[in-house]
Amino acid sequence: MPLPKDVQFVTFDCYGSLIDWEAGVYDAFQKEADRDGFTIDRDAMLPRFIEVQREIQRGSYELYAEVLRRTAVRVAEELGWQLEPSRANFLPNSVPYWQPFRETNAQLERFSKKYEIGVLSNIDDKLLGATRRHFRVDFDLVVTAQQVRSYKPDPAHFKECARRIGGKKGWLHIASDYETDVAPCLKMNVPVIWVNRKGEKLEGRKAPSATVKNLRDAAKRLGAGG
Fold first, then answer.
1. CA distance 15 to 122
2. E strands, the chain, where?
3. What's the N-to-C CA distance of the chain in angstroms?
4. Which residues are catalytic?
5. Cβ(117)–Cβ(137) under 8 Å?
6. pTM, whole model, 2 decimals?
7. Average pLDDT for consecutive 10-residue bins of the chain (226 residues)?
8. What gap in Å lies between CA 82 and CA 91, rounded to an integer?
9. Of 129, 144, 132, whose CA–CA distance to 61 is shortest?
10. Would you call 205 helix, strand, or coil by DSSP?
11. Cis bond leading into 153, ω under 30°?
12. Angstrom distance (rounded) from CA 53 to CA 64
């Protein structure tokens, strides 16, 4: 699916695309584990975090803060760190401190001058509100998991976005996670730019409309760069 020539509305995934959630999660785990003299292996923790979180999200809907608490306890146990469930709030409490990528605010400002912009995120409204304080722009549209009571890659976020903007014409999505964002966009025939920060291979997966290394390159592809 080629990049459209008449882009009017650009939406973003938040965590991984605009916010460096991996650094935020690792720092939160290690800070709490330090209390017990336990060292977190980042390379072991992050893949398990992703898998456990997605398994929990595939169950019946619950707020993302609760998903984080449950994920923290299970991942800690797998790593050999006996974390009492009563301490699991450390992870949702850390979300307001997760930082944007260095490029994020400058590029969002460029996008916002040329397009309406939105964010589609697997989070709850309260935690996203804390994250939005890091951004220098406001969004014209926000769809959270709490609003649609569903987690991507289920299509509810994308269907709700299409409903609010009056269809898919002129809409482009930008995201870093292939499974949660790129794949469902392609299924819905929504043009999508993959921010492939880690240089992942497609390995038989359907190609997005464009693949870039960062948000700056995405802005350049759309003529919004500077």
1. 8
2. 9-12, 116-121, 141-144, 171-175, 192-195, 210-212
3. 26
4. 13
5. yes
6. 0.95
7. 90 98 98 97 97 97 98 98 97 98 97 97 98 98 98 98 95 98 97 97 96 96 79
8. 15
9. 144
10. coil
11. yes
12. 10
